[in-house]
Design goal:
The complex is a heterodimer. By secondary structure, chain A is α/β, with parallel strands linked by helices. Chain A contains 21 helices and 20 strands. In chain A, helix 6 (163-175) links the parallel strand 3 (151-156) and strand 4. In chain A, helix 1 (15-40) packs across helix 10, helix 2 (55-64) packs parallel to helix 3 (79-85) and helix 5 (132-144) packs across helix 13 (411-422). The longest helix of chain A has 26 residues, at 15-40. The relative contact order of chain A is 0.09. Chain B is of the alpha/beta class. Chain B has one domain (4-167): 3-Layer(aba) Sandwich (Rossmann fold), CATH 3.40.50.360. Chain B has six helices and nine strands; from the N terminus they run βαβαβααβαβββββα. Chain B has helices at residues 14-26, 42-46, 65-68, 71-74, 101-112, 150-167; strands at 4-8, 32-36, 50-54, 83-89, 116-118, 121-122, 134-135, 138-139, 142-144. The longest helix of chain B has 18 residues, at 150-167. The model of chain B has no long low-confidence stretch (mean pLDDT 97). The chains are: A alpha/beta, B alpha/beta. Chains A and B meet through helix 9 of A and loops of B.
Chain lengths: 680, 169
Amino acid sequence: MNEYPKVYSVKTTPKETLTKWYRLMTLGRAIDDKAPNYLKQAIGWSYHAPYAGHDGIQLAIGQIFEKKVDHIFLYYRDLLTALSCGMTAEEIILNGISKATDPTSGGRHMSNHFAKPAWNIHNVSSLTGNHTLHAVGVARAIKYYDKKAVAISVQGESSLSEGYVYEAINGASREKLPVIFAVQDNGYGISVPKKDQTANRKVTNNFVGFKNLRVIHCNGKDVFDSMNAMTEAKRHALATGMPVIVQANCVRIHSHSNSDRHELYRSEAEREYVKEYDPLEKFKRMLLRYNRFTAEELAVLEAESAAELKEAHKKALKAPDPDPNTYDQFVLPEPYVSIKYPNGTHNQEGEKKKLITALNETLKAEFRHNPDTFIWGQDMANKDKGGVFNVSKGMQQEFGPKRVFNAPIAEDFIVGTANGMSRFDEKIRIVVEGAEFADYFWPAMEQYVDSSHDYWRSNGKFTPNVTIRLASGGYIGGGLYHSQTIEGALTTIPGVRIVYPSFADDAAGLLRTAMRSRGMTMFMEPKALYNDPKAATVIPDDFEVPFGKARIRREGTDLSMITYGNTTHMCLEAAEKLASEGYSVEVVDIRSLVPLDKETILNSVKKVGKVMVVHEDKVHSGFGAEIASMIMEEAFEYLDSPVKRVGSTFTPVGFHRSFERIILPNTEKIYQAAKQVLSY
Amino acid sequence: MSKIGIFYSFRSTKTAKAAEKIIEAFGNDYQIDKIDADTVNEEQFLSYNKLILGVPTWFDGELPNYWDEFVPALEDLDLTGKKVAVWGMGDQVGYPENFGDAAGIMCELLSSRGAIIIGATSTDGYVFESSKALVGNKFCGLILDQENQARLSSHRIEQWVNDLKKNFK
């Protein structure tokens, strides 16, 4: 159904409303036209994607947005949308020229990325359509907390080629969420025309088969048609709680950005054709044609906009630049502090519990402790099945389907909507099973990487409070796609804590800390140890393990093994065997990879002088390379032998057990390597 | 015989050429006034009882801006009894989903204001997916495709004008 009421028309819209719109539109265009000058004068704004040609729909999107109630996610071409949402010209320029007082990011994010988190104008990635999943996630919270609000994801039509945008729209449709996907169609993704994106020129019609989803087409170049379409979209989303796509036909009058030259791929005739439909000129002609304004009245408004821009420009130029020495602030927020277990150790005695039980009971305890906790993932809740390995067994029965639920087989959706939902309120804590196995997490990497930027990019204004659990590692005969452990790839990315327990108590303690902390934590679970008696321990009910605290699992003086995860147990077994030969081996379980307890590692090295770094992941570029380098840089003079690394081969993990044995590290390989080191 | 007004944008290229051909096809027996759609006003529009409108489709199925800007005026006009013929320009290969849509949008609007739409044409010889110009199994007016079927245009215009001559009586 494309029809919508004509609430606004040139003849009936109150003059004061038209005045406001014309002021916004002329101010926006004045900034849009001026932005390239900042680059020419070497002041900044090196990335500018001009919006000229999108004027009608951008005005309309901003006009239907209610600050601090609705949630909106703008894209890099949304200059007028930002103004229409209520941001000032000065704020726009502060972002453009990367000042410390830029409300988006204090100069950290790229120019033309306008945000004001205090008003729910969210700070988003430059990755096209990345925020679509965030809008769906925050809409899930709007629905759960029963708020009268909408989430608005604004994006170009080419973003609909991205698979995760499909995931987002599918999710909003399935979950019946109040999201408005406002799609500005200017016919190009940089230089790539629509015909090279999808077979359907009306690209949003690709989604007409989705249930619960209304698709509206409008003329994004026309103020009144855009206002009517967006007004109806919001009315519909609020009234029904269902999603809406609005496809607004726009023109791109200029190049994609100031690093693009559209004359290389657009004919002069085409460039003139789109200029002919300049939405601002059209609006002006209509105001005059229907005698709503005289030319003199419009000239006054234009002069006011010019003066406003001049004043904003002066103020913005005087604003302070960011202090580059703050570069390391806001990588990760301060974590939850454990008062009772500052070192993450305990001496409790009693009945041992398995690692899987530790996780299950801690999840449940934290869900009882904090009512604003949620968990989802594939296989999360199907009758008696709770999680692919039943880690979350019984949770849906206790906490209900609104807090514990299945996700579609869409890993990026799982992580992206977690990021989005946590934007709704600081108090929310989310746990997701990032994938069935770590092997299948790769589709979520774009959300993982982007979520890792959030805290830094927003200058500390937003951090996703999300714990990602991943069943990781091999030793189950799983082959290439059930054996991967991927921390080596993840530890290169700042902004996420990464923990990898090897015993039940540490698993419980780290999970509790993760779920009480702000920020994102990657919680890697050695699935081979879920039910292994050797990982079972006594667990205090309230146990907590701080991040960045290694645990010495065995004291020694001849050799130190630095390890984590599955190989902790192999190191302990090798140490035991070496003890029978008279060697005293220390085993340090680092537990946290990021942050890393360098102090405990270095103290062990200094005490012992010989060291091995052991992990299940590949030796080649595995995390052990970082540890070994750190040791050599900071404790070289204490070393009595080269740092030895033990890990898997630089190959996939084969399926036949004999492949697994030759590829993955084991106790014998660690023992043999230890003998080499001890021989120095 | 009352005069005919032919309305199209004087700044247009293909539409203007088609207008000239239409006028030529009518011959000297007809008084046809040319009115620039870029500046047309209500009074001019109402001064004719026989109108021919050139309405090319822009972008993905839109009216050109000059007609779109006149829509608020048209929406309030009483066109009862006026005979109106519409021709459009479209690209059935590049834009098969909205071939000649603008002509259809205009026909529907004029019809809703009481105008009698004349000059429906057959869709034979065209290949497209959908069109707002379709009324039943015919186009509500004449659709010319200069991008893909330019050589058929003269004949299509002649046939259409012959039909209009009968209908304008």
